[in-house]
Amino acid sequence: MQHYSIKDIARLSGVSVATVSRVINNNGRFSEETRKKVSTVIQTTGYETNYSAKNLRMNRSDTIGILIPDISNFFFAEITKLLEEKLFAHGYSVIICNTAHDDQREQSYLRTLESKGIDGLIVISGSATFEFTQGNSQKKIPYVCVDRKPADKSKTIFISSDHQQGAYDATKALYHAGCQNPVIAIGTFDTPSMQGRLAGFNAALTNRTSQWGHVFKLSTPAAGTDDLTAYLQRHPQTDGIFAVNDSVALKLHQILRQLAISVPTTMKLIGFDDSPTDEYVTPTLSSVAQNNTELAEQTVIQLLGLIDQTTQPGHEVIVPVKLRLRETS
């Protein structure tokens, strides 16, 4: 099979090498007729650009890294899928790294991504604040943080749903549905999203006179029947639960049924994330919906702006949420 060089493409097209280069890279001035002529020759000859060499010269790889803590989580999986689709539409390939909430694995992935010369990095959630201490690379890699606070806000852009408002709306909805003693079911407090949801819940309680504990602390992410039974024995007046995510809410939904506690007659329940399963349980689960499409769109816009140096770091983007009331409330 004959291998063609860019000089061959220029000769066969009847144009200069510089013009072929402009057509391939889609920059500079050339006519539509020239573009069609060069494109036809490229297609006919099967010419392939040496992207490795070109990217080395241009100091870019057209690749974006994405760090996620748990690929099995509905929100993380959905947002990653949307990001990949939007980045692909902009001509970028994506390397997805599942850190499994492991700091050492995260650092290992960061070194790998840096060695591959990624053009940008998206960091999704995680337990601690994020700091990208770059190693041997001379290339300064732009990054944005989604639902994860950066250690230095001046170096990046923080993008998040309005977790506080969502939790506030959910808690107020429990009151409006007749609850007098709602609680929040939460496991960890060390992520921005969980902190925001706890703050929103507490803000909704501000004008309430009840002084007893309003926090149902989950012993593990998969807290079971014993946890809820023990909590309700200590706090029998509980009549509503705001669960910090749908995984917790659906688990509690199942346990309440096992305990023969009627939902929503005796106990009302609202989750967060509006996962597809919410509409397929009985009774259907009320939940706060994040606008994942807008989150992904803003993340891509902000990151590409940093890469192209048309956007400055040091600010945050907060995306509104929407409460979807169903049968559990």
Can you give me a brief rundown of this structure?
41% of the residues lie in helices and 17% in strands.
Q: What does the model show?
A:
By secondary structure, the protein is an alpha/beta fold. It folds into three domains: 6-49, 434 Repressor (Amino-terminal Domain) (Orthogonal Bundle); 61-162 and 292-321, Response regulator (Rossmann fold, 3-Layer(aba) Sandwich); 163-290, Rossmann fold. Helices cover 41% and strands 17% of the residues. It has eleven helices and twelve strands. The strands form two sheets. It has a six-stranded parallel beta sheet with strand order 2-1-3-4-5-11, sandwiched between helices. A six-stranded mixed beta sheet has the order 7-6-8-9-10-12, with helices on both faces. Helix 1 (6-13) packs across helix 2 (17-25). The longest helix is centred in the last third of the chain and has 17 residues, at 292-308.
SSE map:
Blueprint: H1 6-13, H2 17-25, H3 32-45, H4 51-58, E1 63-68, H5 74-89, E2 93-98, H6 103-115, E3 120-124, E4 143-146, E5 157-161, H7 163-176, E6 182-186, H8 192-204, E7 215-217, H9 225-234, E8 240-243, H10 246-258, E9 268-272, E10 286-290, H11 292-308, E11 315-319, E12 321-324
Helix pairs in contact: 1-2, 1-3, 5-11, 7-8
